[in-house]
């Protein structure tokens, strides 16, 4: 059975009208891109399918230092216990070969006194290697083999102590521990400074001991494609900072604002405010220096993705002078305020300088208008207060009752009383 044809044409039906109605563009959230450097400075990189694993064993010391603490402690304990057991077996074999374990040979001079079982040999091995020396067990001159084992155990014990204790010391004094007190602002900002569009971050040191020869490097990491069609997933581009123009060292006594002028050589030169939010770039910040107390070189890292870059903001000042002392308020370390900033790219500002002038003029006019509104509001409030005080006086005066005056007029039939208020 055929369906009945509608009287209304299809183009005027609800589906047809809905298809011809203009739709607003739908902005979808960009898929979160994997960070190359995490906010805490760790590298977000996984190594897979490494075939030459033996290269790590060629540098045992660095491998032990790079291991986690739980693995280091397990290796530390296992190494010492294994060496004690190995040389305990050697001492037990020396005693067995000399006949010291035979009960019938107890009256003869032993290689090691009071070594009668494997347990006593294990205790003597611990005493020799850690130089405890309880005094009950000692080596005699009867066995040259025992003297050789004693020399070998002392040498092996010194090597194990040097490697393991040095490893633990290096893990305790690692440079990244000092980097925990080097802080970065949560967000980066882009604003106009000295009539140029600038990318800025804030860095600080929480300790009073300074970082000597501190340097800051900026790199932009993003996926690029060459004209030949080669895809570079991690393309690192160096970014010049304002401090590196004159001197590459920073005097990191108080929190500093690191400024990068977005010029022709900057990878941010062609990005506007809207394009920046849609891009997948990542700005890596690397702070290096020498620790004043230990002389060890330390490095602190962080990164900023496009969502963490605030366009048209500026960091609030946090250093004030109080009673002859400069005070730093770290509670406002990452606070920013909005400032008037053109939304176009730095290239457009260079090609059309009038954009910046017009933006600054508009901001000045808006600032003047806001001041006028504030002044007018203050005047209105003062006038209302004055009107309220005069009205209260009137109400108070009306509340006072006026006295009544009475006049008596003589009449024919008596007296007439007139009251005047």
UniProtKB/TrEMBL annotation:
Per UniProt, the ranges with Low complexity bias are 378-399
Q: Per the UniProt record, which residue ranges are transmembrane?
A: 71-97, 145-169
A molecular function (GO) held by this record is:
ATP-activated inward rectifier potassium channel activity
Q: Where is the Potassium channel inwardly rectifying transmembrane domain?
A: 37-174
Pfam families listed in its UniProt record: IRK, IRK_C
What membrane topology is given?
A: Multi-pass membrane protein
Q: What's the catalysed reaction?
A: K(+)(in) = K(+)(out)
Q: Report the subcellular localization.
A: Membrane
What residue stretches are annotated with the Inward rectifier potassium channel C-terminal domain? 182-352
Domain of life here?
Eukaryota
Q: Name one GO biological process term.
A: nervous system development
Q: What keyword terms does UniProt attach to this protein?
A: Ion channel, Ion transport, Membrane, Phosphoprotein, Potassium, Potassium transport, Transmembrane, Transmembrane helix, Transport, Voltage-gated channel
Any one GO CC term of this protein is: plasma membrane
Q: Does the keyword field hold Transmembrane helix?
A: yes
Q: InterPro entries given for it?
A: Ig_E-set, IRK_C, K_chnl_inward-rec_Kir, K_chnl_inward-rec_Kir6.1, K_chnl_inward-rec_Kir_cyto, Kir_TM
Q: Does the keyword Membrane apply?
A: yes
Record site feature (Role in the control of polyamine-mediated channel gating and in the blocking by intracellular magnesium), residues: 161
Q: Where is this region: Disordered?
A: 366-421
Q: Which family does it belong to?
A: Belongs to the inward rectifier-type potassium channel (TC 1.A.2.1) family.
What is the name of this protein?
Potassium inwardly rectifying channel subfamily J member 8
This protein's species is Seriola lalandi dorsalis
